[in-house]
Design goal:
Blueprint lengths: L1 H9 L14 E7 L8 E8 L16 H13 L1 E8 L1 H7 L1 H14 L7 E5 L10 E5 L2 H4 L1 H22 L7 H4 L5 H10 L10 H14 L1
Helix pairs in contact: 2-6, 3-4
Length: 215
């Protein structure tokens, strides 16, 4: 017991969470909040204690191909689940609530109930019925949250690549639904699809402009 107390004092941040003394911790993160098109994804990840965490960092800092490889490795060495909220849900309940809903769905799909969830951001989903702690920029500080960000982003990227085959003019296989210059140009030229978030300002402005033109 004394050894546990001494070791615990040495932990100056939450990054080293894979300790033999700890209960199961689920890192939770969402991706795609700022996109103009496509659903918002989230992942909940309970890392195995023997996993090599080298390279598991915030998904935004990892190139696409490496992110896919890392995601596969994480999934093989963890208990994980993925949740998402649809574009229609985003339009209906707003992007914040849709992001929290995707997190809640990911947590509810976990095979094993974690003792605590470490959640990226300020807010946590309501009624998740487990203990939780939120972390601002958690994907930069906590390995399990970074792992969740990688798994969620890889899943969403692959979803958008598949969706791009039906809508090749919008280059979703490259921009993943984010508001790049090419994406905005395609929106202006070809119009809004059912996968675009109609309440997001660039999309909304195009819709309003076209409504005026047809009146």
């Amino acid at each position: 017991m004394d050894r546990f107390k001494n070791d615990k004092r040495k932990i100056k941040n939450f990054k080293n969470i894979i300790l033999p003394y700890t209960n199961k911790i689920a890192g939770v993160d969402e991706v795609g909040r700022g996109c103009l098109a496509g659903p918002v994804f989230a992942a909940a990840v309970i890392l195995n204690r023997n996993i090599n965490t080298k390279g598991i960092i915030d998904s935004k800092k990892i190139p696409f191909k490496k992110r896919i490889i890392l995601s596969r490795y994480i999934k093989k060495n963890s208990t994980y689940a993925i949740g998402y909220a649809t574009v229609s849900e985003i339009n209906k309940i707003n992007i914040l609530n849709a992001s929290l809903l995707s997190m809640k769905r990911a947590l509810s799909k976990l095979k094993y109930k974690p003792a605590v969830a470490y959640i990226d951001g300020i807010f946590a989903p309501k009624n998740i019925k487990i203990k939780y702690k939120t972390f601002i920029k958690g994907d930069e500080k906590i390995t399990s949250i970074a792992a969740a960000s990688i798994v969620a982003k890889a899943a969403r990227d692959l979803f958008m690549i598949k969706l791009s085959k039906k809508f090749p003019k919008y280059n979703w296989d490259q921009n993943f639904g984010y508001g790049t210059k090419k994406h905005l140009k395609s929106l202006n030229k070809y119009g809004v699809t059912k996968y675009h978030r109609k309440k997001f300002k660039p999309v909304h402005n195009i819709l309003m402009c076209r409504t005026r033109e047809t009146q």
